[in-house]
């Protein structure tokens, strides 16, 4: 049972990496409480579930890999007593004939608690050990680890160990936190290094999340975004900005800033987000088509758009081969997979 | 009103600030008053001179030894207040404040104070910032403008003083006689509404020209026009501030805000007044109204001696809605005797360039004599066969011989000779116009007026609403501090006003959603109910065509989840579950509040039409059913409602009924500031319509 104390700790990344190293056909996946909901054609599924369905070439449908999203619905459908039974049934069905089976808990340790669907309660329900995914500064890693250990102990669940993710400076981690963790009696199953590719998001993902309209440059929808740049200045000024040189930038600007938009299309950018539903000149749109720089149109103003972008969670999709490869790589170098064998 | 009547026909006029210096406003004003032949008492007030322009001057208002019916104040702004106080003390009936420097330069408080003082005795104030007024009835020129004004039967009310003075000049040039001309300036007290009320019953006035920049009390103006104005007395309005740029200019001109021009247009249509686009057009129409009877039948015959201008007039007839005479047999019978064989007796009747003056006279006379012909456009191309004088005499002769029989609009095309002929005709009171198009435009207003007079709209029996329930619902939202009504409150209001809406209700839990869906029957539609979310479908808050309990449960979960993610701060009231309406044509019906004209109602085709084409029409609320039908026919996409290319005719009667109800809803509940029924789905004739979504917003408290 993979758990964490905060969103985006890297549970899905670690499981995707493990699945590739251990062998896709041997691995099974279940994410009882969905978080990245997709509702299309009257069907509900979770984006992580969809990724795993493809990655593991599972016979189950994406919607089977998640049990539900909204608490009230689950209460209505099953009632508290029946819910546990049904979860266990699903767990057993999905884990059958799989050598390794990973259950992904919710982003935070309390989520789902009122339904008995928080990570620790579920680990107890299925009788499986807990693995904590930790990410952040060394102090918070120590806090999170000791908290989860106590929580597991209280519930009589085994904490198998922790996986520390997104480590920029391995030696510093070793110096400041590793010994402490071991001293608390917590096993460190793996230390996953930082990988830029994993933090990038794709333009198409932004389009979906912002409900944006693509008005030009559709060819570049798979471009990667690593940086966000608010273009509220003249082109000449923007060009002097150090962030301008980054080809993977997303630029937010108003549609009447033709000079800046033209400069961005020429100099290279992952995409442009045009606010207030304005439309740049046809010449620029034609140029953007040619250069493959997507131009996205949104009705919100620049501030609201920037705020929305900031809050977008990073979700991996099966199409993002570079991310999957990066996940495999970090798991492989950390030796995490061996701990499950 | 009595005081305003006195203002136009006073027995005495005091001029405070009267001067002997004709370069001063006070000097010119007094000179005009003396020269105009005003027979009442004139009291010049001047504290330095004993006599002014030969009249005995009084040192102060107090010293005047008689009653003052009307006072004109021409003193500097800083002295106006004390003068007004004295006038009130003296029991003055009305007062014209010529002096400027009040609200138009931001001194609104000082201006309001003057009105306050005047109200204590019931004295009425015209102005400040006006050129005054001229009244034919009293033979009184109480203006500092031109001294020569031609008496007649046209009244001009103008917001702009300078334009007013210019218009006086123009009326003389155009041979238009005035019953009165008044400038309203800052409208601190007397405004257009008061003046229209007066003019409605003024027997010396046959038509009114109103120049306005912004309408402050549109609602009252409409009321006067609809209820007090005799239907035969035409009102022509010239309103500036049509364009965005024009609006700004108007706002900074007299300190009044120009209201929305589209709403103004709606008011024009509803009240049956005429809106001219240019000053020239306004004067052309005035000339026509002042000199012509209305058409005797709803058709027009064009008599010409040139094929080209005949066709030009025919072309103009369509956009100006002038119906052309079309009985070929009578045309042939009437005009054959006066048309050469190579001419044409069809309408336009072309008697050809070979025709001499007496031929033309005969043709015109034939048109006058044929009783089935309602009006005439008489066109003439200069063929050099007659002198200007002969030409003019011929026209004048026929015109006089048939005076008052039916309307004729003349237009003569040619060089200097023709210009001279036109001038002579003009002086003799013939409505002659510079251009063929102008002539057709001018006669068109007479046809329109006839049509308006013939309109026999059935009396509206107001709809029966559960007004108590509506008011209770609106108050409930107010009590909770909300300006937007919730979905179930909107439903209640629509129900209470018999506006058809798709069946449904608000579910606060998944259980409620399922039981609602089961009571409505599948398929159903689900929508998020939250006042914080405007674009419901963008928020993932709308799901259509749900066919089973499981689908309802999943949709409920998806909606709640999506909205919580995308609008974390939004106040979610629940999910609306509604019957899935059959496909149909979507229209939009709305209501809104105009700062000047008050509650209004709007109609248009929904979806892309309203957004991209802005193809909508307005009317002031409440709107009579017959007016609603005209409003509907006004949109460009109206033929879609009639059914195009095999599509069935839509239930136009049901749409009209809904618009009519919305107009009454807006009128009876003025706390509603905005109302939208969008989409409103309409079906074939007899099958009605269904509101799928509605929004109601209350005014700010």
What do these coordinates show?
The complex is a heterodimer of chains A (341) and B (701). The model of chain A has no long low-confidence stretch (mean pLDDT 91). Chain A has helices at residues 11-22, 47-55, 71-95, 119-126, 138-155, 170-183, 196-199, 203-210, 235-240, 258-267, 282-291, 302-310, 321-334, and strands at 2-4, 27-33, 37-40, 43-46, 66-68, 100-103, 130-135, 159-167, 188-193, 201-202, 213-216, 224-225, 227-230, 249-254, 271-275, 295-297. In chain A, strands 11-16-15-14-13 form a five-stranded mixed beta sheet, with helices on both faces. Chain A folds into two domains: 2-194, Rossmann fold (3-Layer(aba) Sandwich); 199-310, HprK N-terminal domain-like (Udp-n-acetylmuramoylalanyl-d-glutamate--2,6- Diaminopimelate Ligase, Chain: A, domain 1, 3-Layer(aba) Sandwich), CATH 3.40.1390.20. Chain A is globular and about 65 Å long. Chain A is of the alpha/beta class and 341 residues long. Chain A contains 13 helices and 16 strands. Chain B is α/β, with parallel strands linked by helices and 701 residues long. Chain B folds into five domains: 1-129, NAD(P)-binding Rossmann-like Domain (Rossmann fold); 148-290, 3-Layer(aba) Sandwich (Rossmann fold), CATH 3.40.50.261; 292-454, Succinyl-CoA synthetase domains (Rossmann fold), CATH 3.40.50.261; 467-579, ATP-grasp fold, A domain (Dna Ligase, domain 1, 2-Layer Sandwich), CATH 3.30.1490; 585-698, ATP-grasp fold, B domain (D-amino Acid Aminotransferase, Chain A, domain 1), CATH 3.30.470.20. In chain B, the strands form six sheets. In chain B, strands 9-8-11-10-12-13-14 form a seven-stranded mixed beta sheet, sandwiched between helices. In chain B, strands 24, 25, 26, 27, 28 and 29 form a six-stranded antiparallel beta sheet that branches. Chain B has a five-stranded parallel beta sheet with strand order 2-1-5-6-7, with helices on both faces. In chain B, helix 10 (279-291) crosses helix 16. Chain B is flat and about 95 Å long. The two termini of chain B are 33 Å apart.
């Amino acid at each position: 049972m993979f758990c964490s104390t905060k969103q985006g700790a890297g549970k899905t990344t670690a499981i995707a990496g493990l699945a590739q190293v251990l062998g896709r056909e041997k691995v099974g996946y279940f994410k009882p409480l969905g978080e990245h909901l997709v509702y299309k054609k009257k069907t509900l599924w979770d984006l992580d579930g969809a990724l795993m369905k493809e990655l593991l070439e599972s016979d189950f449908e994406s919607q089977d890999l998640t049990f539900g999203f909204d608490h009230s619905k689950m209460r209505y459908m099953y009632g508290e007593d029946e819910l546990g039974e049904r979860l266990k049934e699903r767990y057993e069905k999905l884990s059958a004939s799989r050598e390794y089976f990973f259950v992904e808990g919710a982003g935070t340790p309390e989520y789902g608690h009122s339904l008995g669907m928080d990570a620790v309660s579920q680990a107890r329900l299925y009788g499986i050990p807990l693995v904590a995914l930790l990410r952040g500064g060394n102090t918070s890693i120590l806090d999170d680890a000791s908290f989860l250990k106590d929580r597991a102990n209280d519930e009589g669940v085994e904490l198998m160990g922790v996986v520390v993710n997104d480590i920029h400076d391995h030696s510093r981690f070793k110096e400041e936190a590793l010994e402490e963790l071991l001293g608390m009696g917590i096993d460190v199953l793996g230390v996953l290094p930082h990988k830029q590719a994993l933090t990038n998001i794709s333009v198409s993902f932004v389009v979906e999340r912002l409900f944006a309209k693509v008005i030009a440059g559709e060819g570049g929808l798979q471009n990667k975004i690593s940086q966000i740049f608010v273009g509220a200045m003249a082109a000449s000024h923007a060009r002097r900005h150090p962030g301008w040189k980054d080809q993977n930038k997303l630029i937010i600007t108003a549609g009447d800033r033709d000079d800046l938009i033209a400069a961005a299309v020429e100099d290279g950018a992952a995409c442009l987000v045009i606010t207030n539903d304005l439309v740049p000149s046809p010449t620029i749109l034609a140029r953007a088509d040619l250069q493959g720089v997507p131009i996205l149109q949104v009705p919100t103003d620049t501030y609201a758009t920037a705020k929305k972008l900031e809050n977008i969670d990073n979700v991996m999709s099966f199409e993002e081969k570079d991310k999957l490869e990066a996940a495999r790589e970090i798991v492989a170098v950390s030796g995490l997979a061996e701990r499950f064998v | 009103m009595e005081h305003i009547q006195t203002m136009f026909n006073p027995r005495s006029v005091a001029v405070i600030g009267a001067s002997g210096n004709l370069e001063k406003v006070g000097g010119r004003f007094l000179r005009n008053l003396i020269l105009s032949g005003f027979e009442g008492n004139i009291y010049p007030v001047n504290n330095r001179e004993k006599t002014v322009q030969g009249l005995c001057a009084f040192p102060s208002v107090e010293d005047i030894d008689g009653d003052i019916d009307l006072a004109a104040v021409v003193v500097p702004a800083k002295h106006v207040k004390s003068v007004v106080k004295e006038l009130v003390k003296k029991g003055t009936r009305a007062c014209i404040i010529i002096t400027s420097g009040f609200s138009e330069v931001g001194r609104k408080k000082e201006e309001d104070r003057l009105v306050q003082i005047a109200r204590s005795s019931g004295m009425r104030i015209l102005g400040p910032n006006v050129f005054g007024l001229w009244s034919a009835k009293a033979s009184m020129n109480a203006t500092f403008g031109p001294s020569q004004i031609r008496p007649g039967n046209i009244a001009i009310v103008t917001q702009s003083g300078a334009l007013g003075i210019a218009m006086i000049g123009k009326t003389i040039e155009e041979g238009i006689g005035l019953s009165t001309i008044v400038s309203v300036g800052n409208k601190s007290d007397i405004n257009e509404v008061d003046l229209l009320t007066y003019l409605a019953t003024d027997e010396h006035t046959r038509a009114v020209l109103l120049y306005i920049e912004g309408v402050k009390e549109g609602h009252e103006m409409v009321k006067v026009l609809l209820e007090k104005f005799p239907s035969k007395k035409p009102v022509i309005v010239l309103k500036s501030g049509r364009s965005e740029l024009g609006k700004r200019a108007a706002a900074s001109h007299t300190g009044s805000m120009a209201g929305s021009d589209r709403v103004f247009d709606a008011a024009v249509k509803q009240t049956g007044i005429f809106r001219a686009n240019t000053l020239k057009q306004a004067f052309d129409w005035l000339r026509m109204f002042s000199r012509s009877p209305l058409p005797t039948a709803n058709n027009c015959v064009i008599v010409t001696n040139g094929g080209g201008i005949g066709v030009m007039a025919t072309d103009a007839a369509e956009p100006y809605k002038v119906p052309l005479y079309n009985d070929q047999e009578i045309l042939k019978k009437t005009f054959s005797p006066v048309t050469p064989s190579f001419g044409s007796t069809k309408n336009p009747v072309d008697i050809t360039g070979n025709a001499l003056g007496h031929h033309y006279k005969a043709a015109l006379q034939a048109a006058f004599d044929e009783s089935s012909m309602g009006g005439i456009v008489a066109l003439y191309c200069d063929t050099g066969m007659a002198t200007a004088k002969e030409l003019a005499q011929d026209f004048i002769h026929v015109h006089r011989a048939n005076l008052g029989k039916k309307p004729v609009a003349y237009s003569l095309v040619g060089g200097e000779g023709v210009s001279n002929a036109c001038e002579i005709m003009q002086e003799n009171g013939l409505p002659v116009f510079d251009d063929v198009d102008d002539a057709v435009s001018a006669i068109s207003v007479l046809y329109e007026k006839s049509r308006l007079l013939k309109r026999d709209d059935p009396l509206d029996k107001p709809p029966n609403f559960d007004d108590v329930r509506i008011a209770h619902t609106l108050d409930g939202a107010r009590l909770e501090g909300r300006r937007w009504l919730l979905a179930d409150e909107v439903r209640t209001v629509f129900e209470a006003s018999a506006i058809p809406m798709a069946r449904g209700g608000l579910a606060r839990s998944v259980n409620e959603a399922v039981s609602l869906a089961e009571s409505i029957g599948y398929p159903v539609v689900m929508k998020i109910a939250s006042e914080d979310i405007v674009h419901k479908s963008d928020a993932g808050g709308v799901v259509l065509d749900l066919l089973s309990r499981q689908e309802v449960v999943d949709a409920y979960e998806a909606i709640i989840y999506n909205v919580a993610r995308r609008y974390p701060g939004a106040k979610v009231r629940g999910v609306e579950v509604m019957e899935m309406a059959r496909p149909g044509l979507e229209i939009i019906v709305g209501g809104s509040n105009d700062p000047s004209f008050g509650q209004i109602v709007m109609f248009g085709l929904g979806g892309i039409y309203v957004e991209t084409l802005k193809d909508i029409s307005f009317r002031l609320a409440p709107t009579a059913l017959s007016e609603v039908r005209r409003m509907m026919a006004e949109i460009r996409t109206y033929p879609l409602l009639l059914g195009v290319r095999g599509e069935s005719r839509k239930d136009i009667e049901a749409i009209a009924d809904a618009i009519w109800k919305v107009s009454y809803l807006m009128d009876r509940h003025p706390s509603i500031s905005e109302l939208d029924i969008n989409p409103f789905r309409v079906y074939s004739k007899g099958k009605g319509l269904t509101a799928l979504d509605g929004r109601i917003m209350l005014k700010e408290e």
